[in-house]
Amino acid sequence: MAAAARWPAFGRAAVCLAVAVLVVAGAGFLFALSGLYDIAAGREHLAPTRQFLELAKRRSVAVHSVFVEVPRRDDDDLVRLGAGHFASGCAPCHGAPGVPVGPIARRMQPAPPDLAQIAPTWSSKELFWIVKNGLKYTGMPAWPAPQRDDEVWMVVAFLRALPSLDAAGYRAMTGRGQSGLARLDSHDPAVRNCARCHGDASAAPVSPLVPSLNGQSVSYLALSLANFAEGRRPSGIMQPIAAAFDTTDRGRLAEIYSTLTPAARAAPTATDAQIERGHRIAIAGVPGRGIPPCLTCHGGGGLATYPRLAGQSAAYLAGQLRLLRLGTRAGTPQGAIMTPIARLLAPDDIEAVAAYFDSLRDAAPDSGDGPRRLRVP
Amino acid sequence: MTTARVLIAGIALSMAGCSGVQSVLSPAGAEAGRIAAFFWVLVGGGGIILAAVIALTGLALGRRRHRWLQSESLVLWGGLAFPTVVLSGLLVFSLPLMRAGAVADRQALRIEVVGERWWWRVVYSGTDGRPVELANELVIPVGRSVEIALRSADVIHSFWVPRLAGKLDMIPGRTNSLRLVADQPGISRGQCAEYCGGAHALMSFHVVALEPAAFEAWLARQAAPAMTPSEPQAEAGRALFIASGCGACHTVRGTGAAGRIGPDLTHLGSRHSLAAATLPNDAPSIARWIRDNQHIKPENLMPPFAIFSAAELDQLAAYLAGLK
Fold first, then answer.
1. Is B301 on the interface with A (CB under 8 A)?
2. Which residue of B has its CA nearest to A337?
3. Is A334 in contact with B307 (Cβ distance < 8 A)?
4. Residue B70: pLDDT band by 50, 70, 90 thresholds?
5. Residues of B (30-49) whose Cβ lies below 8 Å from A
6. Among candidates A186, A31, A41, which has minimal Cα distance to A110?
7. Has this prediction a pTM greater than 0.95?
8. Omega into B118 within 30° of 0, i.e. cis?
9. Which residues contact A286 (CB under 8 A, 6 or more apart)?
10. In what order do the strands lie in the sheet with B137-141?
11. In a 3-state reduction of DSSP, which class is residue B285?
12. A1, A256, A277, B77: most buried by Cβ count inside 10 Å?
């Protein structure tokens, strides 16, 4: 009886609450409709609004990044590659040591924060989540290639290193303003941009995670740029760069790199046994497991649209084989051929073949699309 | 009247399945003949017994009482002794059929067939003793006993050519031996009869029985290296075949292509079908297969080669179809 008597009171309270909510929502709607709210980016938020938005952002990122798994790898190679992307993708809005925020970005609301200051206040998981997903209503875009978590981690690695960099350290890392890295064709900004990460006639790529382009065929290089530009080969780093070039530019860049000979690189670090194992897979495959030999396509006589792998760094090759295994590169006809093959390779097969191609130093590429010579040790 | 017509049409339609290249009921060899005869004995005997049981049931349900239907001796003789005798007789009759022709024969032609996902590797012994490899097709001489060594490269498959013999499993790590004789020339179709993964249903093959002289000529042709293409279209196709890396998985004897992962293509153009009896063997089908094989036969282990232009596909197809 007592419980039944309480119900009408409860019902009245619920109705009152619903009416209150409707009134508040209606008032908010009328306020928006009135056009009185000042949406100008040139004017700061009110302090309570800013604090509320900040709280919502911090909580959202913290909760959404709970299940992000931090990879073990976190080394200088990642940092250098992350730096290369940071210089072209992040610094224009966020600034960098010795690089002021651009005049346009300075007038954004909220203003893009100085990452050297703000990055240490986020955990690696949270930084990863922000770089990958972007932030709504702030102008911070999501990563162009959602499949490429590996690239996002490169940026995170750099953001971790950023607070300890001064202007000279940043310049040394990104090659901005340094004469040495622009040797290739300093009057051509497009080529300078490539050389910043991929190196040129005399400089090896900035990190073993970056492929050397020297001596690849014109067809392969131009096709790769087209695949990046149109998003068939996903890369948040390469897609914006390639999309900025037209077909003529891509052809010109491909021509230039196809004529270069490989630059000198550090000695390989893999064991002889690993290299020998990779050598066997490269020339004979593993027929019992359906693995074809690499060199039938990637050696001297393969189609010009197939890449030559001799002398490419082990870190880059192993990374690409892992991406192929994930199906990330299956969007191009060439990637669709390689994807099922990469899936047959066990992790130690990948290390072995990557070590083998890394160990080749005297591959002698020629220009144009003709067959290549490949000396097998 | 209409019911009778529908019945007749239905019977005629279902009987159509009894002839054809893959029917147990139109045997083309001694082994399959014995199996077909056994089948008819079972159908006939089973039919008579069924009719008798129905008749007895009718009697038992009728108004008149039959004392003998209630006797214990009927249960003993009809329910115990009769099935024991009949089933024992059938067992004795059928055991020889299950030996899969295990009688040794020195004159037998030996062929090795390896079940692969999802095709058949077929290896003959050439006149000089060297192995001659082809795929997805067996050619056998009429009247000569054939001993087929059945192996598997990966999972359990089952080799079944209903017009020639019973089915026999291909088990990884062991060799099973199947013996059969074709008693008339012609084409039979075989099928993998043990589920072996994704493309199992499209793992078939043809067995062609030829007169002995024609068989010898065929084997000599298969043992020879591939023909060199004469027209420019096929010649361009050959260069493309090599440069595209097809030789990493396929062998074309007489060229640099020496891969052992996929089927031998040395005399592809001479076969009755493509892709383990999935497609007719002609140039348009070859071109389709190269580009769309994952649509035609999902999950098969060949990557799709969508890298070629229509003209390049025509060149490749012209080359491969010309490998007679």
1. yes
2. B303
3. yes
4. confident
5. none
6. A41
7. no
8. yes
9. A344, A349
10. B137-141, B204-210, B186-192, B157-160, B168-170
11. helix
12. A256
pLDDT in tens, B304-324: 999 999 999 999 999 999 999
Residue B69 at interface with chain A, using a CB cutoff of 8 Å: no
A239 contacts A144 by C-beta, under 8 angstroms: yes
Distance between CA atoms of residues A205 and A263, nearest Å = 9
Q: Say whether residue B245 is in contact with chain A using an 8 A CB cutoff.
A: yes
Residue A256 CA, distance from chain mean position: 24
| Rounded Cα–Cα distance for residues A179 and A106 (Å) | 29
Beta strand B157-160 pairing with B204-210 = unpaired
Query: Is this complex scored with an ipTM above 0.90?
Result: no
User: Collapsing DSSP states into helix, strand and coil, what is residue B302?
Assistant: coil
pLDDT at res. B11: 66
In the predicted structure, residue A182 carries a pLDDT above the cut 50: no
Q: What is the DSSP string of A188-211?
A: -HHHHHHHHHH--SSS--SSTTSP
Output the furthest CA–CA distance in chain B (Å, rounded).
91
Distance CA B81, CA B268 (A): 59
Find the CB nearest B248 among A292, A305, A333: A292
What's the half-sphere exposure (Cβ side, CA atoms, 13 Å) at A344? 20
Peptide bond into A307 cis (omega under 30): no
d(CA B269, CA B321): 4
Q: Phi then psi for A344, rounded to 5 degrees? A: -80, -15
DSSP 8-state code for residue A271: -
Q: Report the C-alpha gap between B169 and B115 in whole angstroms.
A: 10
Across-strand partners of B207?
A: B138, B188
Task: Kindly state whether B242 is in contact with chain A, defined as any CB-CB distance less than 8 angstroms.
Answer: yes
The whole-angstrom separation of Cα A351 and Cα A314 is 7
Question: Contact, B263 vs B250, CB < 8 A?
Answer: yes
Dihedral in degrees, nearest 10, Cα atoms A91, A96, A100, A104: 20
Using DSSP, state whether A100 is helix, strand or coil. coil
